[in-house]
Design goal:
67% of the residues lie in helices and 1% in strands.
């Protein structure tokens, strides 16, 4: 499957250039992090903290599809290479912040930085990753000012904006801590919850263009922003389908669970009695609900690719659908592929 994904994405010239950008960006950030994340001389060896070996797959396309997509937007907006690279580096820091925060909130251990420290250290590695990303941002902005890529005022605006732009999504996550008490209408989940939860994260790449870039066609930029926001919401719907059991047990917002609730579907009562395991593949048990939702998500992703194509990606219409379908497997829903 990885080969098919690579072949389809490599068929788009700007994606190829954006992916090369992304590989360089990852190397840049990790190189800076290596010189930053290290304990002072004289620290006992058993308490040493440093960056460990970087996994070989970290720069694979399959792990960087979203980042490559974001980087391609800078090509479409004709942003200068130095700023394109800087914005991509900031995007990688956003990735570290968001993933580390999710790991802390959801008791997970998805990869952020290859931090080596004593013990299992799942929680503390996330804390160090967030702290390191904050210092890395300061260093990136300082170097950008020294290279005349940014003015001091622009650097200050990016620094403040990098926090402010995340706050609505953080507030949405905070609203789910401890679990929700009732399930809102499916339309509210799509148009409000998921736009803040994930759609907003797909608009993070526009922080620099929104704050600093003066020569961009505003209609073109807004069209691309809306396409990526819709893309993010569609991906969250696919996440909801995959995470039905976890979201049910943890009482988190979920588009499918809201559909079941507002349609008084008998399956919801079955779940109440059964209390499924967190990793149960519940989407296979209600295909009459999950398959139409999956198809709609694929259509929305394909439409977003269509907007990007019209803006300059030049994706053939058939490939827009193929690209959209790859996300069914990327988001671990390959067992629904047979029905699409």
């Amino acid at each position: 499957m990885a080969g098919n994904i690579t072949a389809v994405w490599n068929s788009v010239r700007i994606f190829r250039s954006a992916f090369r950008d992304q590989q360089t960006i990852i190397a840049d950030v990790l190189r800076m992090a290596e010189s930053l994340v290290c304990t002072p001389p004289g620290t006992p060896a058993e308490f040493e903290v440093r960056l460990g070996q970087t996994p070989e797959h970290l720069t694979d396309l399959s792990r960087n599809l979203f980042s490559t997509l974001f980087q391609s937007v800078y090509h479409l907006l004709d942003i200068s290479p130095p700023r394109r690279r800087l914005y991509g580096q900031i995007n990688y820091l956003f990735r570290l912040w968001v993933t580390s925060a999710d790991n802390l909130l959801d008791n997970e251990d998805k990869f952020t930085l290859p931090i080596h420290m004593p013990g299992s250290s799942r929680v503390m590695r996330q804390v160090v990753s967030i702290m390191a990303a904050d210092r890395l941002l300061s260093q990136l902005l300082k170097e950008a000012v020294a290279a005349s890529t940014l003015t001091s005022d622009e650097a200050d605006r990016l620094s403040a904006g990098s926090l402010q732009v995340l706050l609505p999504s953080a507030a949405q996550e905070a609203s789910e801590e401890g679990g929700i008490t009732k399930r809102p209408r499916p339309e509210y989940v799509l148009n409000t919850i998921h736009r803040l939860k994930t759609g907003l994260l797909f608009n993070l790449p526009f922080l620099g263009p929104d704050l600093l870039e003066q020569g961009i066609d505003p209609q073109r930029k807004e069209s691309l922003k809306q396409a990526l926001l819709n893309f993010g919401v569609a991906c969250q719907v696919l996440d909801d389908i995959r995470d039905l059991a976890r979201d049910f047990r943890e009482r988190r917002h979920n588009y499918i669970l809201s559909i079941l609730s507002w349609n008084c579907h008998p399956y919801l009562q079955q779940l109440q009695e059964r209390q499924p395991d967190l990793n149960d593949r519940l989407h296979l048990e209600i295909p009459e609900v999950t398959i139409p939702a999956t198809r709609k998500a694929i259509q929305d992703i394909a439409h977003s690719f269509g907007v990007l194509s019209a803006a300059g990606l030049a994706i053939p219409p058939t490939n827009s659908v193929k690209l959209a379908e790859t996300f069914v497997n990327i988001l671990d829903l390959g067992d629904l592929q047979y029905a699409l």
